[in-house]
Amino acid sequence: MEQMATVYLFGKKYEVPSSLTIMEAMEYSGYQLVRGCGCRNGFCGACATIYRIAGDRDLKACLACSTKVENNMYVAALPFFPLVKEVYDLEKLTPSETVMMQLYPEIYSCVGCNACTKACTQGLDVMQYIACAQRGEFDKCAELSFDCVMCGVCSSRCPAGISHPQVAMLARRLNGRYLAPDCAHLRTRVQEVRDGKFEALIEDLMDRPLAEIQELYNNRDIEK
Amino acid sequence: MYSDPIMQQSIRKVEAARARNIRLDPRRMSAEEKDRLLKAFHPDYREDQFALLDFGPNRGEKVPLELRALLEGTPRLTGSRVDLEHPDFETDVLIIGGGGAGCSAAIEADRAGCSVLLVTKLRVGDANTMMAEGGIQAADKPNDSPAQHFLDAYGGGHFAAQKDLLRKLVTEAPEAIAWLSGLGVEFDKAPDGTMITTHGGGTSRKRMHAAKDYSGAEIMRTLRDEVFNRPIRVVDFTAAVELVKDDRGCCAGAVLVNMETKELLVAKAKTVILATGGAGRLHYQGFPTSNHYGATADGLILGYRAGARLLYPDTLQYHPTGAAFPAQIYGALVTEKVRSVGAMLVNASGEVFMNPLETRDVAAAAIIRECTERGNGVPTPEGSAVWLDTPMIELKNGAGAIEKRIPAMLRMFGKHGIDIRTEPILVYPTLHYQNGGLKITVDGQTDVENLFAAGEVVGGIHGRNRLMGNSLLDVIVFGRNAGIHAAQKAKTVTVGTLTLAHLDAFERERAAAGVETGLRSPQLLPDYARRLNPLK
Q1: At CA B296, angle to CA B361 and CA B466, rounded to 5?
Q2: Range B512-523 average pLDDT
Q3: Is the CB of residue A63 less than 8 Å away from at least one CB of chain B?
Q4: A90-98 long-range CB contacts below 8 Å, 24 or more apart?
Q5: Domain ranges of chain A
Q6: Shortest CB distance from B140 goes to which of A30, A35, A186?
Q7: Which end of chain A has fewer surrounding CB within 10 Å, N or C?
Q8: Does residue B506 have a pLDDT over 90?
Q9: pLDDT, tens digit, for every residue of A83-137?
Q10: Contacts of B205 in chain A (CB under 8 A)
Q11: Contact call for A43 and B183, based on CB within 8 A
Q12: How close A207 gets to chain B, by Cα (Å)?
């Protein structure tokens, strides 16, 4: 006999196999999902979920696709949260502290409650990456926030109204565009392609009879 | 944490053999060996799982049974059902799909000065691009060249790729990486700026660029952010259910449906780009899938009904390493990068049974053979599987390598109590990618005038098998390409009277062929809801 668990989906009671994820439990209960379901594997942040185990004072957050149900779990989906996304032209920004002051000044109202970090479905140190953003340390902010899936649970818990995932998104783009070391071999190769350096080589290959291409492929040297 | 005694026993064999296994460099299979293996064990060769199309542009050609049922399915509306004279949206370029290709196209079409409407049935970024983990190929190192990249991809795709498309893919790859870097995508680099690149299955040079094992997510969220920074009109939770043409037979928009309210809407456009992605959620042959929720082949259905030919719709990619255990992540992608950075495939007895970096079709077939004919699989609740010996990675690259290089994998298994730094993981092939799709010209246009296509919905770029890292590349190169050309074309187009006459013609053909598959299409979403005694 399959082990069952009692779950409360939006407060309503259902019995589901205890091996299911929250998302599967919803489907098992008869829900045809449209919202709150994306990659089903922890990458897209569509299925942010808040839950509480009955009797527990602690409110927890997770991704429904990758969290198993627990007995007496009260589940509320958070398929959308109104984050603030400022519009900018990356080419006109400079990676300085003032960028955040202009676009996301509310980060300086952080009261240090750490609710964002406690709520993060990815286990990231959210408050710390916001502190890095405040100081203009975009490389550190980028590194600490890298695994963010932008589900928005952090922001739902923030008394200062910060849109953490969008702050981190900006920091990562500034870091990737302006702070990461320039890649010389890429620049060289792009120029070589523009100059048509490989045209003859590739045309020569394409125009050969199939048997010759097969021969070349089957005997090509493979870098160790 | 494996509690099953048979799994535990097998793990002990894997551990005992690890020190010896790690020194092995298994030879690659010969062309003949690969050929025999594929014919015997690759799912594409199971003839009873395919059917011939009865009518339409690909009449007489074979496609998977599940796809035929949709390609020849019942349309969701008839020509008279919608008011085409009063469109809800008018735009220069309509883009259907909000993944990597759709967003790349939108950015380029906007840059070219066109008005752009992007519709997507879920949210922007809910796409297979978001879930691509391992990386993106580009021949940008001194020991490499686009010609070498061409040779790897052409051979890996069984010499079936459309050469002109593949040439474009490999030639524009370095530029694609530079474009993404300019948008702020954080590729893994050494302190001096050199890209950290690795092998993928079937590559002859280390040209796999990555952003840890969130490569697709990092690219997708950056593209999405850029779309939102531009005056691109985005309408989410809105799917296309039919393409619209004008009285000259040119594609000129689409009938849309609001996924939540079911309201029908009409979008009129000078050019249309289909960027609807793949088909993993059709679960061909009952396979699990690594694909996102919306991967239901909608673009193939819409394009086919409008008269666009498909190329290689009978070739699917089964990623060799889908998670096989625990059940909660059954079918989820275990990135090829796990093998790129040193993990080997090991059977139940602890034996390395193949070179871990053969192409995906070959690796998938070899795993299936190990689990079936050879009886060397580890029994799992869903069937049988082989080990991917992840602890080898840190033995080869030092402690901390897993957290640094494949953090998403560490997290995915960690959530289920498996520490991949110390324990191996169970894998089995999972439905991953649609190699075939709509046939396009090098400018990205399908057989239907003013209908463009980009991304996984396209067939022909990769031939009959795709190499790791060439799909992220494809969505960027051909997404941008479609955006540029659709925008250019839009500047010369005057749309005639809108019509769904092609749909009525399709229905006449279907009736003449006497086909009734019992399914309505496009499918839009999979239906996983368990329904007990529902009120009809």
Answers
A1: 25
A2: 95
A3: no
A4: A90/A173, A90/A174, A90/A177, A90/B183, A90/B184, A90/B226, A90/B229, A93/A174, A94/A178, A95/A136, A95/A138, A95/A174, A95/A175, A95/A177, A95/A178, A95/A179, A96/A136, A97/A134, A97/A135, A97/A136
A5: 4-77, 90-179, 187-218
A6: A186
A7: N
A8: yes
A9: 999 999 999 999 998 999 999 999 999 999 999 999 999 999 999 999 999 999 9
A10: 223
A11: no
A12: 10
Residue A150 sits at the chain B interface (C-beta within 8 Å): yes
* Closest alpha carbon within chain B to A204: B147
Residue B210 has pLDDT above 70, yes or no: yes
Q: Which CATH number among 3.40.190.10, 3.10.20.740, 1.10.260.40, 2.40.50.100 corresponds to the domain A4-77?
A: 3.10.20.740
Reply yes or no on whether the pLDDT at B78 is more than 90: no
Is B339 noted as a catalytic residue in this protein? yes
pLDDT at residue B1 is higher than 90: no
- Could you count the other beta carbons within 10 Å of the beta carbon of residue A117? 18
Contact (CB<8Å) A87/B229 = yes
Length of chain B: 536
Q: Cβ B229–A90 below 8 Å, yes or no?
A: yes
CA of B302 to nearest chain A CA: how many angstroms apart?
21
Which amino acid belongs to residue A13? K
The predicted structure's pLDDT at residue B80: 82
- CB-closest option in A89, A183, A198 to B171: A198
- The CATH architecture assigned to B89-315+435-499 reads 3-Layer(bba) Sandwich (3.50)
Mean pLDDT for A73-78 is 97
B159:A213 CB<8 A: yes
Q: Which residues of chain B form CATH 3.90.700.10? A: 5-41+317-431
By Cβ distance, the residue of B174, B328, B534 closest to A189 is: B174
Q: What is the pLDDT of residue A1?
A: 62
Nearest residue to B199 (alpha-carbon basis) of B468, B385, B384, B411: B468
Q: Do B152 and A220 touch (CB under 8 A)?
A: yes
Residues of chain B with CATH 3.50.50.60: 89-315+435-499
What's residue B487's pLDDT? Answer: 98
Put simply, the answer to whether A146 touches B225 (Cβ < 8 Å) is: no
- Digit-coded pLDDT (tens) for B433-452: 999 999 999 999 999 999 99
Q: How many CB contacts within 8 angstroms connect chain A with chain B?
A: 223
Indicate the residue of B122, B222, B411 with minimum beta-carbon distance to A38.
Answer: B122
Nearest C-alpha of chain A: how many angstroms from B427? 16
Please name the fold of domain A90-179: Fumarate Reductase Iron-sulfur Protein; Chain B, domain 2 (1.10.1060)
Tokens of B323: 């998670």
Contact B214, B133 (CB under 8 A): yes
pLDDT at B334 over 70: yes
Q: CA B310 → CA A7, A131, B47, B159, B435, distances in Å?
A: 46, 52, 19, 18, 11
Asked if B68 is an active-site residue, the reply is no
List, for residues B98-134, the tens digit of each pLDDT value.
999 999 999 999 999 999 999 999 999 999 999 998 8
- State both tokens at B506: 């399709």
Please state the rounded mean pLDDT for residues B347-370.
Answer: 96
Cα separation values, A174 from A57, A96, A135, B157, Å: 40, 9, 14, 38
pLDDT at position B91 is: 98
User: Which pair of tokens denotes residue B260?
Assistant: 């939540």
- Is A78 an interface residue toward B (CB < 8 Å)? no
pLDDT score for B81:
83
pLDDT surpassing 80 at residue B137: yes
Q: What is the ipTM of this complex?
A: 0.97
pLDDT, mean of residues A2-15 = 96
Q: Which percentage of chain B shows pLDDT scores above 90?
A: 97
A38 touching chain B per CB within 8 A: yes
Q: What residues 156-185 of chain A have any CB closer than 8 A to a CB of chain B?
A: 169, 172-177, 180-185
Q: What is the pLDDT of residue A2?
A: 79
Residues contacting residue B327 through CB under 8 Å, at least 6 positions apart: A19, B381, B382
The residue among A18, A178, A193 with the most chain B CBs within 10 A of its CB, best to mutate, is A193
